[in-house]
Amino acid sequence: MLWDMDGTIIDSEPLWIVAEDAMLSRYGVELDAELREQLIGSGLWDAAELFRARGVDLSADEIVAELAGEVQAQLAAGEPAWRPGAVELLAALREAGVPCALVTMSIRSLADQVAELLPPGTFGAVVAGDEVAHEKPHPDPYLRGAAALGVPIEACLAFEDSPTGLRSAAASGAVAIGLPHLVELGDAPAHALWASLEGADVAAVARAFTELRGTAPGPRTITEPAAREALVSDPKGSRA
Question: Region entry Disordered: which residue ranges (predicted)?
Protein backbone atom coordinates (compact mmCIF):
# COMPACT_ATOMS: atom_id res chain seq x y z
CA MET A 1 0.00 0.00 0.00
CA LEU A 2 1.24 3.47 -0.92
CA TRP A 3 -0.03 6.50 0.97
CA ASP A 4 0.02 10.21 0.29
CA MET A 5 0.32 12.20 3.52
CA ASP A 6 -1.06 15.76 3.45
CA GLY A 7 -4.84 15.65 3.11
CA THR A 8 -4.92 11.85 2.94
CA ILE A 9 -3.58 10.77 6.34
CA ILE A 10 -3.42 14.09 8.15
CA ASP A 11 -5.38 17.29 7.56
CA SER A 12 -2.35 19.56 7.45
CA GLU A 13 -3.72 22.06 4.94
CA PRO A 14 -4.66 24.61 7.64
CA LEU A 15 -1.06 24.51 8.85
CA TRP A 16 0.29 25.11 5.36
CA ILE A 17 -2.17 27.97 4.81
CA VAL A 18 -0.94 29.75 7.94
CA ALA A 19 2.68 29.37 6.81
CA GLU A 20 1.99 30.37 3.22
CA ASP A 21 -0.17 33.36 4.12
CA ALA A 22 2.46 34.69 6.52
CA MET A 23 5.15 34.52 3.84
CA LEU A 24 3.03 35.95 1.03
CA SER A 25 1.75 38.82 3.15
CA ARG A 26 5.32 40.02 3.70
CA TYR A 27 5.53 40.60 -0.04
CA GLY A 28 2.06 42.05 -0.45
CA VAL A 29 0.70 38.93 -2.15
CA GLU A 30 -2.73 37.49 -1.37
CA LEU A 31 -3.26 33.76 -0.99
CA ASP A 32 -6.30 33.75 -3.27
CA ALA A 33 -8.50 30.77 -4.20
CA GLU A 34 -6.72 30.19 -7.51
CA LEU A 35 -3.26 30.01 -5.95
CA ARG A 36 -4.52 27.87 -3.06
CA GLU A 37 -5.94 25.27 -5.46
CA GLN A 38 -2.70 25.23 -7.45
CA LEU A 39 -0.77 24.53 -4.26
CA ILE A 40 -2.83 21.51 -3.14
CA GLY A 41 -0.93 18.36 -4.03
CA SER A 42 1.98 20.27 -5.57
CA GLY A 43 5.57 19.46 -4.76
CA LEU A 44 7.17 22.01 -2.46
CA TRP A 45 9.66 23.21 -5.04
CA ASP A 46 6.90 23.59 -7.63
CA ALA A 47 4.95 25.58 -5.03
CA ALA A 48 8.03 27.69 -4.35
CA GLU A 49 8.24 28.63 -8.03
CA LEU A 50 4.59 29.73 -7.92
CA PHE A 51 5.46 31.98 -4.98
CA ARG A 52 8.48 33.37 -6.82
CA ALA A 53 6.31 34.10 -9.86
CA ARG A 54 3.94 36.05 -7.59
CA GLY A 55 6.78 38.19 -6.26
CA VAL A 56 8.32 36.38 -3.30
CA ASP A 57 11.98 37.44 -3.42
CA LEU A 58 13.52 34.28 -2.00
CA SER A 59 15.18 31.26 -3.55
CA ALA A 60 13.10 28.11 -3.94
CA ASP A 61 15.16 26.39 -1.25
CA GLU A 62 14.61 29.29 1.16
CA ILE A 63 10.86 29.21 0.54
CA VAL A 64 10.65 25.46 1.12
CA ALA A 65 12.75 25.64 4.29
CA GLU A 66 10.65 28.44 5.79
CA LEU A 67 7.26 26.90 4.95
CA ALA A 68 8.19 23.42 6.12
CA GLY A 69 9.76 24.74 9.30
CA GLU A 70 6.63 26.69 10.19
CA VAL A 71 4.39 23.68 9.55
CA GLN A 72 6.64 21.48 11.69
CA ALA A 73 6.51 24.01 14.53
CA GLN A 74 2.70 24.14 14.38
CA LEU A 75 2.46 20.35 14.26
CA ALA A 76 4.71 20.03 17.29
CA ALA A 77 2.65 22.55 19.23
CA GLY A 78 -0.78 20.98 18.68
CA GLU A 79 -2.73 17.78 18.24
CA PRO A 80 -2.63 16.15 14.79
CA ALA A 81 -5.87 16.29 12.79
CA TRP A 82 -6.12 12.82 11.27
CA ARG A 83 -8.31 12.26 8.23
CA PRO A 84 -11.35 10.01 8.94
CA GLY A 85 -10.50 6.32 8.97
CA ALA A 86 -6.84 6.71 7.99
CA VAL A 87 -5.23 5.79 11.32
CA GLU A 88 -7.63 2.87 11.80
CA LEU A 89 -6.95 1.44 8.34
CA LEU A 90 -3.20 1.85 8.76
CA ALA A 91 -3.39 -0.06 12.04
CA ALA A 92 -5.43 -2.85 10.44
CA LEU A 93 -2.98 -3.14 7.55
CA ARG A 94 -0.03 -3.27 9.96
CA GLU A 95 -1.72 -6.02 11.97
CA ALA A 96 -2.45 -7.96 8.78
CA GLY A 97 1.17 -7.68 7.66
CA VAL A 98 0.43 -5.55 4.59
CA PRO A 99 3.51 -3.37 3.91
CA CYS A 100 2.86 0.36 3.55
CA ALA A 101 5.01 3.22 2.28
CA LEU A 102 4.48 6.93 2.81
CA VAL A 103 4.90 8.82 -0.48
CA THR A 104 4.76 12.55 0.15
CA MET A 105 6.04 15.74 -1.42
CA SER A 106 6.74 17.17 2.03
CA ILE A 107 10.38 17.17 3.07
CA ARG A 108 11.80 14.14 4.87
CA SER A 109 11.98 15.73 8.32
CA LEU A 110 8.28 16.63 8.19
CA ALA A 111 7.33 13.21 6.83
CA ASP A 112 9.28 11.56 9.65
CA GLN A 113 7.61 13.86 12.20
CA VAL A 114 4.16 12.69 11.07
CA ALA A 115 5.24 9.04 10.82
CA GLU A 116 6.53 9.19 14.39
CA LEU A 117 3.06 10.15 15.59
CA LEU A 118 1.86 6.72 14.46
CA PRO A 119 2.74 3.33 15.99
CA PRO A 120 6.18 1.94 15.11
CA GLY A 121 6.13 -0.19 11.99
CA THR A 122 3.22 1.66 10.38
CA PHE A 123 5.39 2.43 7.36
CA GLY A 124 8.05 0.17 5.93
CA ALA A 125 9.43 3.04 3.87
CA VAL A 126 9.13 6.80 3.49
CA VAL A 127 9.64 8.64 0.20
CA ALA A 128 9.81 12.42 0.59
CA GLY A 129 9.81 15.35 -1.79
CA ASP A 130 13.43 16.27 -1.16
CA GLU A 131 14.56 12.74 -2.09
CA VAL A 132 13.00 12.27 -5.54
CA ALA A 133 14.25 13.08 -9.02
CA HIS A 134 10.83 14.42 -10.03
CA GLU A 135 7.92 15.63 -7.89
CA LYS A 136 4.31 14.58 -8.36
CA PRO A 137 2.57 14.41 -10.89
CA HIS A 138 5.59 12.52 -12.25
CA PRO A 139 5.36 8.77 -11.43
CA ASP A 140 8.86 8.74 -9.89
CA PRO A 141 7.72 9.12 -6.24
CA TYR A 142 5.35 6.16 -6.39
CA LEU A 143 7.81 4.02 -8.30
CA ARG A 144 10.33 4.72 -5.56
CA GLY A 145 7.76 3.81 -2.90
CA ALA A 146 7.09 0.42 -4.45
CA ALA A 147 10.81 -0.23 -4.92
CA ALA A 148 11.48 0.66 -1.28
CA LEU A 149 8.93 -1.96 -0.21
CA GLY A 150 10.45 -4.48 -2.62
CA VAL A 151 7.22 -5.04 -4.55
CA PRO A 152 6.26 -4.35 -8.19
CA ILE A 153 4.24 -1.19 -8.66
CA GLU A 154 1.49 -3.26 -10.30
CA ALA A 155 0.96 -4.96 -6.94
CA CYS A 156 0.35 -1.63 -5.17
CA LEU A 157 -2.73 0.39 -4.32
CA ALA A 158 -2.29 4.11 -3.65
CA PHE A 159 -4.48 6.54 -1.73
CA GLU A 160 -4.44 10.21 -2.79
CA ASP A 161 -6.48 13.36 -2.20
CA SER A 162 -5.41 15.60 -5.11
CA PRO A 163 -5.48 15.50 -8.92
CA THR A 164 -1.70 15.96 -8.94
CA GLY A 165 -1.20 12.97 -6.67
CA LEU A 166 -3.64 10.80 -8.59
CA ARG A 167 -1.85 11.58 -11.85
CA SER A 168 1.39 10.47 -10.24
CA ALA A 169 -0.07 7.26 -8.80
CA ALA A 170 -1.98 6.28 -11.94
CA ALA A 171 0.99 6.98 -14.21
CA SER A 172 3.20 4.78 -12.05
CA GLY A 173 1.02 1.72 -12.67
CA ALA A 174 -0.51 1.52 -9.18
CA VAL A 175 -4.23 1.22 -8.57
CA ALA A 176 -5.12 4.80 -7.63
CA ILE A 177 -8.00 5.54 -5.27
CA GLY A 178 -8.94 9.17 -4.69
CA LEU A 179 -10.21 10.53 -1.40
CA PRO A 180 -11.76 13.94 -2.14
CA HIS A 181 -11.01 16.53 0.52
CA LEU A 182 -10.36 20.12 -0.53
CA VAL A 183 -10.54 19.86 -4.33
CA GLU A 184 -12.79 17.96 -6.71
CA LEU A 185 -11.39 14.75 -8.16
CA GLY A 186 -14.16 13.76 -10.58
CA ASP A 187 -12.01 14.38 -13.67
CA ALA A 188 -8.75 13.09 -12.19
CA PRO A 189 -7.27 9.80 -13.46
CA ALA A 190 -8.46 7.57 -10.63
CA HIS A 191 -9.49 3.93 -10.61
CA ALA A 192 -12.07 4.81 -7.95
CA LEU A 193 -13.14 7.63 -5.66
CA TRP A 194 -14.08 6.83 -2.07
CA ALA A 195 -15.91 9.39 0.03
CA SER A 196 -13.53 8.63 2.91
CA LEU A 197 -11.61 5.81 4.59
CA GLU A 198 -14.05 5.72 7.48
CA GLY A 199 -15.20 2.13 7.97
CA ALA A 200 -12.75 0.74 5.40
CA ASP A 201 -10.94 -2.44 6.40
CA VAL A 202 -8.33 -4.78 4.96
CA ALA A 203 -10.99 -6.88 3.22
CA ALA A 204 -12.49 -3.82 1.49
CA VAL A 205 -9.06 -2.73 0.27
CA ALA A 206 -8.26 -6.24 -0.97
CA ARG A 207 -11.57 -6.46 -2.85
CA ALA A 208 -11.02 -3.07 -4.43
CA PHE A 209 -7.51 -3.95 -5.57
CA THR A 210 -8.61 -7.27 -7.04
CA GLU A 211 -11.46 -5.72 -8.99
CA LEU A 212 -9.73 -2.52 -10.08
CA ARG A 213 -6.30 -3.75 -11.18
CA GLY A 214 -6.05 -4.03 -14.92
CA THR A 215 -8.72 -1.36 -15.48
CA ALA A 216 -7.94 2.06 -16.91
CA PRO A 217 -7.97 5.08 -14.59
CA GLY A 218 -10.39 7.81 -15.56
CA PRO A 219 -13.17 10.11 -14.34
CA ARG A 220 -15.14 8.59 -11.48
CA THR A 221 -18.15 9.23 -9.31
CA ILE A 222 -17.61 9.51 -5.56
CA THR A 223 -18.93 6.46 -3.76
CA GLU A 224 -20.12 6.51 -0.17
CA PRO A 225 -18.52 3.92 2.14
CA ALA A 226 -21.76 1.95 2.36
CA ALA A 227 -21.81 1.60 -1.42
CA ARG A 228 -18.16 0.66 -1.75
CA GLU A 229 -18.86 -3.03 -2.37
CA ALA A 230 -21.05 -2.07 -5.30
CA LEU A 231 -18.22 0.05 -6.68
CA VAL A 232 -15.70 -2.76 -6.74
CA SER A 233 -18.27 -5.00 -8.41
CA ASP A 234 -18.52 -2.38 -11.19
CA PRO A 235 -15.02 -0.91 -11.44
CA LYS A 236 -15.74 1.05 -14.62
CA GLY A 237 -17.85 3.49 -12.63
CA SER A 238 -19.35 6.51 -14.36
CA ARG A 239 -18.34 10.06 -15.17
CA ALA A 240 -18.92 12.56 -12.38
Answer: 216-240
Paired strand residues for 190: 218
* CATH fit for domain 2-10+81-233, picks 3.30.420.360, 3.40.50.300, 3.30.930.30, 3.40.50.1000: 3.40.50.1000
**DSSP line for 23-57:** HHHHTT----HHHHHHHTT--HHHHHHHHHHTT--
User: Is the domain covering 13-77 a CATH 1.10.150 domain?
Assistant: yes
Please list the ranges in the chain whose pLDDT falls under 70.
Answer: 41, 224-240
Which of 85, 120, 122, 100 has the alpha carbon at shortest distance from 204?
85
Phi, psi of 94 (to 5 degrees): -60, -45
Segment 71-98, tens digit of pLDDT:
999 999 988 999 999 999 999 999 999 9
Q: How far apart are CA 202 and CA 92, in angstroms?
A: 7
CA–CA dist 104, 148 (Å, integer): 14
pLDDT tens, position by position, 121-138: 999 999 999 999 999 999
How big is the CA angle at 66 (ends 135 and 14), to the nearest 5 degrees?
75
